[in-house]
Amino acid sequence: MAAPRIEGESLLARFLTPEVYQALKDRETYFGVRLEHLIASGVQNPDSAIGVYAGDEESYSVFAPLLDPIIEAYHGFGPGDRHVSDLDPGGLEDQPLDPAGRYVLSTRVRVARNLCCFPFGPVIGFRERRMAERAILGALETLEGELAGSYHPLPALDPATQARLVEEHLLFKAGDRFLEAGGFNRHWPDARGVFLNRERTFLVWVNEEDQLRIISMEKGSHLKRVFSRLVQALAELERRLSFARSPRLGYLTSCPTNLGTGMRASVHVRLQRLPEEEIQAIALAHGLQVRGTHGEHTQAEGGVYDVSNKRRLGITEVEALRQLEAGIRALIRAEGA
Ligand code: ARG
After folding, report:
1. Whose CA is nearest to atom 4 of ligand 1?
2. Which of 44, 63, 92, 227 is the least crowded, having the fewest Cβ atoms under 10 Å away?
3. Structural domains of the chain, ranges and CATH numbers in brackets
């Protein structure tokens, strides 16, 4: 069979050469992941930036001739590099980034995780997904104090509540076309849900793009406090769950953009004067990424942008947070100038 023609400018289109296709077309992982699973989303969505999802941990070694160049292009992380983690909040400034609260509305840090030895979203089966949900809930139920909360299974949420939670940035949106094409939405909404603490400052999305999206967030710009809460939750959860991880690539996620730290630290910042091109340029110079008010693939409303670290692999968590701090300070300076 000839290599499929991949439309668009995605990293998949760039790196799935006829040679790579020939080398990978008959490979299969232990969980039955094949090349067609990896590339389905990018083939069906020519406007993809990346275009691939891994179907399990082993995909990263079995399909390395395709995934390694994609990882290098996105993260600047080469074959000889090894990921290093630093979850010590001690190195961060113990004060809000924008003390007067004139620009930064809220701060959010999330990490993506998957359970060790389970297939990922593209190929996970109905029963396996339920098993993953049960294991995750078992761990979440043991959380105490500020982190204690309750689980809201998606099938039990009425449409109005669901819409309100999405609007409040507490719940993932249904029907993402990139995930849909990648096979993630099979059996929707079964075994998906969200765990929320009382204050709505700690939440966990279950079985969406990754099996866990562990999120700490609050109004204002106290990055250290938000990160510390996340680190505390991670330490508790890692006592009861073991996450998919590799010595070279760090935490393993379905999308190669989330490898390593799995962490996206973001603020919602209101920049009403700066032109969007200038925002993009300052962000780029600081290794940051700009999204719309409601996240990926949305527009900024009322000059409110979601600004976050772009790189998540080959950089420690603390380094990524420092990068965010520096970039946000630069944006605020430019806006106020
Ligand atoms: N698969 C989509 C693309 O290639 C999204 C990539 C990054 N975003 C994400 N949520 N993983 O454009």
Report:
1. 50
2. 44
3. 11-75 (1.10.135.10), 89-336 (3.30.590.10)
- Tens digit of each residue's pLDDT (9 = 90 or more) over 255-274: 999 999 999 999 999 999 99
Tokens of 187: 């059996």
Reply yes or no on whether the pLDDT at 3 is more than 80.
Answer: no
- 317 by DSSP, 3-state: which? helix
CA 183 to centroid of ligand 1, rounded, Å: 14
Q: What separation in Å is there between the alpha carbon of 239 and the centre of ligand 1?
A: 30
Name the residue with the closest Cα to ligand 1, atom 3.
48
Residue 109's SS3 state is strand
Q: Which atom of ligand 1 is nearest to the CA of 254?
A: 11
pLDDT on residue 235 = 98
Minimum-distance ligand 1 atom for the alpha carbon of 10: 4
Q: Which candidate, 231, 17, 212, places its Cα nearest to that of 109?
A: 231
d(CA 24, CA 256): 18
Q: State both tokens at 30.
A: 């232990």
Residues with CB under 6 A from ligand 1: 10, 41, 48-51, 178, 209, 255, 257, 296
| Residue 259 DSSP class | -
Vertex 265: Cα angle to 129 and 238 (nearest 5): 45
* CB half-sphere exposure, 164, CA atoms < 13 A: 5
Active site residue ranges = 110, 209, 213, 255, 257, 264, 291, 296
Which of 209, 255, 291 has the most ligand 1 atoms within 8 A of CB, as the residue to mutate?
255
CA of residue 218 to ligand 1 center, whole Å:
25
Confidence grade of residue 146 (pLDDT, cut at 50, 70, 90): very high
Instruction: Tell me, in angstroms, the distance from the centre of ligand 1 to residue 101's CA.
Output: 31
CB hemisphere CA count around 312 (13 angstroms):
25
Mean pLDDT of all residues in the chain?
97
Q: What confidence tier does 183 reach under pLDDT thresholds 50, 70, 90?
A: very high
pLDDT of 1 higher than 70: no
